[in-house]
Design brief:
The chain has 20 helices and 30 strands. It has a six-stranded antiparallel beta sheet. Strands 6-5-9-8-7 form a five-stranded antiparallel beta sheet, with helices on both faces. Strands 16-25-24-21-22 form a five-stranded antiparallel beta sheet, with helices on one face.
């Protein structure tokens, strides 16, 4: 084995004849200062670094080759001297704040990064105690942990402390400190190395995500508009504000659709002190002129100091109210990220308030008559054009009809009638209508939906009988799902409800499905069938049975030629036993708005799926959705490849009428994915969560071929 090169060479008189860069780093003497001088001369002139290096351990021996007139100098094999350049480099070059703490809890060494974190010079830290060095960052906690590490030798990782520095006194910072003990076996001394990293951005993001998660868990549990406002205040104080209040317009509190801007009233407040109105007090809308006009959050500086953040409670371009927060901590200002977080929470609260309104519509007897207002129904989303009538009195008290948007540009049409009358029928109607909405959200096949609605009807009937109502609860219902892409309509029927179809060629079929037992009665399975309905087909759904002995349906067909006055006139002349009437004229999407690709079951196909998606969106002019759609497709295709079963298909549907983009991933596996909340250290589990966050809605529907996971995102004009 060859001899390693020495770091220095001496002649037989002990004069330095060679001096390497390593020797220069170890001793601090340049080559010019060392060459030609004897070792004794170097030591006599006070070369402290050389003395320390000799004490730490150097080996002197003859050079290889038999030259006895020259001697070499090498660092000892186990000497700490060899590690010293590395230690020096760490303390001088590391971007992490490093501290060397002696067993007397005083700072022995510190690097520039640590000084920059505190905004102090090195002289202001060296020699000071641990508490002095971390005076602004929970010093008592840091000292206690340093003592524990010295005593036990157990390292401590990611100790989180918060505070400010002279360099940035206006903002709070978070440091993650890791500590471990060093032992010198020769001198039997111990020290602690503390590594400090500024993790303020990470902690702020973590806090914001945790707060957003808590808001989603806490707000909207009661399905009451005023309670939702109180829940927003409870989430905001004290994490986001020192004080807060929420004011709602009268229409939002009364669960009516606002046609203008009525009175504004404070419905929830954390305090009745300064700048906070009393709960129940009326507020002038002019105080929030910027919200009324711009409908965007804004921050104001108070004359007495501090800031106030005002945000709109906005859902689907309808202003429900305002929320105002007063700044809690001067070191946590309402910066752009904080405003964005509060805006997200306010938007979610507005959605919960809107959901509470719909819940009250469906379950409150006094609001069960809303079906008489055609404006309360959603549009057909380009799948159908509709006309309807609703008589809320008499036998119509238990009737309902709905147009329910579904995924993939589809739409569900339903008409039902609870047998009997009075408040009991109205209440049952509200319950069954709500159940229909909930089941429709599961994307069930129509016959499967009616089967579950049948079970719900029987349970509600059993509850009524338990309180002494001897009348049996039964109902009729027709439920149809029209797909404008496939031009097919799947229809299911329970009871003797009227159902008719008028094809574009004039063919009239008033009995496309046989009669079956009503909901709540024992009998055969409900009739169901899938039909091909070309564009222009009219589907007629009536709440009552066929008007025997009359030509009502024929007159209705004749009136459909004119989609305005004639149709309205025929609807108005229908008998009172037809309390709910729904007409739907089917439409079809342009084939250019739908594209389907087969995906190879290999992970390499994910990149190709992303390229296909972005290319198609560019052709459709939906460049604003490229990032969200590309990430969603990537996550869902990856999930399908890993957990699904071939064949795998990707479909994009652009709905110009509803202004939505639907992304669908289909595979042959019936196993349903579920939303997970991955932990910070998990390497997976966020795909469906990310897809849900980037889209307006998402879900899963099943078919005989497997399942389809879909997301839907709205796009602008």
């Amino acid at each position: 084995m060859s001899q390693p090169s020495p770091i220095a060479a001496l002649d037989e008189q002990g004069t330095v004849v060679a001096w390497s860069r390593t020797a220069q780093r170890l001793t601090g003497l340049t080559e010019a200062e060392a060459l030609g001088r004897g070792v004794s001369d170097l030591l006599a002139t006070g070369a402290e670094a050389l003395t320390e290096a000799l004490r730490a351990g150097l080996t002197i021996g003859s050079l290889a080759g038999g030259d006895r007139r020259r001697w070499g100098v090498w660092p000892s094999g186990d000497s700490a001297v060899r590690a010293r350049p590395v230690v020096d480099a760490a303390f001088t070059q590391s971007p992490i704040g490093l501290h060397l703490i002696g067993d007397d809890l005083r700072i022995l060494r510190v690097n520039k990064a640590a000084c920059a974190m505190r905004g102090l010079p090195e002289d202001g830290i060296l020699g000071g105690s641990v508490q002095e060095a971390f005076a602004r960052y929970e010093p008592a906690l840091v000292e206690r942990v340093v003592r524990e590490v010295l005593a036990t030798g157990e390292p401590v990782l990611d100790l989180l402390v918060r505070g400010t520095s002279p360099a940035d006194p206006e903002h709070e910072h978070a440091l993650a400190i890791s500590l471990f003990r060093l032992e010198n076996t020769e001198t039997r001394t111990m020290s602690v190395v503390a590594e400090a990293v500024d993790v303020t951005p990470r902690e702020r993001n973590r806090e914001r995500l945790a707060l957003l998660h808590r808001a989603h868990e806490h707000i909207g549990r009661s399905l009451d508009a005023v309670r939702c406002a109180w829940e927003l205040v409870e989430v905001a104080v004290p994490d986001l504000a020192g004080a807060a209040f929420v004011a709602l317009f009268d229409a939002a509190v009364q669960s009516t659709a606002p046609s203008d801007l009525p009175g504004l009233r404070c419905v929830a407040a954390s305090t009745d002190g300064e700048d906070m109105p009393a709960v129940g007090s009326a507020l002038a809308p002019e105080l929030f002129a910027r919200i009324l006009t711009d409908r965007v959050p804004y921050v104001e500086h108070l004359a007495a100091g501090g800031r106030v953040l005002t945000l709109p409670l906005l859902v689907r371009d309808t202003l429900l109210g305002v929320v105002r927060l007063r700044q809690l901590h001067p070191r946590r200002p309402y910066d752009e990220a904080a405003v964005r977080l509060v805006a997200d929470i306010a938007a979610y609260t507005a959605l919960c308030i809107d959901n509470a309104q719909h819940y009250e519509h469906a379950h409150a007897t006094a609001l069960a008559l809303h079906g008489s207002d055609p404006g309360s129904l959603p549009a057909g989303r380009g799948a159908v054009e509709t006309a309807q009538r609703y008589l809320p009195t008499g036998q119509g008290a238990g009737a309902w009809f709905d147009i329910i948007p579904l995924s993939g540009a589809r739409v569900a049409l339903t008409v039902g009638q609870v047998h009997g009358g009075g408040p009991g029928a109205t209440a049952a109607m509200g319950q069954l209508r709500s159940a229909t909405h909930a089941l429709a959200g599961l994307d069930l096949d129509p016959h499967d939906l009616l089967a579950r609605l049948h079970n719900t009807t029987r349970r509600l009937g059993a509850e009524r009988q338990a309180v002494g109502d001897t009348r049996k609860l039964t109902a009729t219902c027709a439920y149809a799902v029209h797909d404008p892409v496939a031009k097919r309509c799947t229809v299911a029927r329970a009871g003797r409800q009227s159902l008719a179809v008028l094809l574009p060629d004039g063919t009239w079929n008033d009995r496309p499905l046989p009669e079956t037992s009503p909901l709540g009665e024992d009998g055969p399975p409900f009739a169901a069938e899938e039909f091909f309905f070309p564009p222009g087909t009219t589907v007629v759904l009536l709440s009552g049975p066929d008007p025997a002995g009359s030509d009502t349906l024929r007159r209705l067909r004749a009136g459909l030629g004119d989609r305005s006055a004639a149709a309205d006139d025929v609807l108005g002349r229908l008998p009172a036993d037809q309390a709910a009437v729904l007409l739907a004229l089917t439409r079809a999407l342009d084939p250019a708005d739908v594209v389907t690709w087969d995906i190879d079951p290999e992970l390499t196909a994910v990149a190709a799926a992303r390229r296909l998606t972005t290319g198609r969106l560019a052709r459709w002019g939906l460049n604003d959705l490229e990032f969200a759609a590309e990430l969603t497709v990537s996550e869902l295709v990856t999930n399908a490849i890993r957990h699904g079963t071939p064949p795998i298909r990707l479909r994009l549907v652009r709905n110009p009428t509803a202004r939505t983009l639907t992304c669908e991933i289909s595979d042959a596996s019936p196993a349903a994915p579920h939303l997970r909340h991955a932990r910070a250290g998990d390497e997976g589990g966020r795909g469906l969560f990310i897809s849900g966050e980037l889209s307006d809605s998402w879900g899963v529907r099943w078919s005989s071929e497997g399942k389809t996971v879909w997301t839907e995102t709205a796009f602008g004009t």
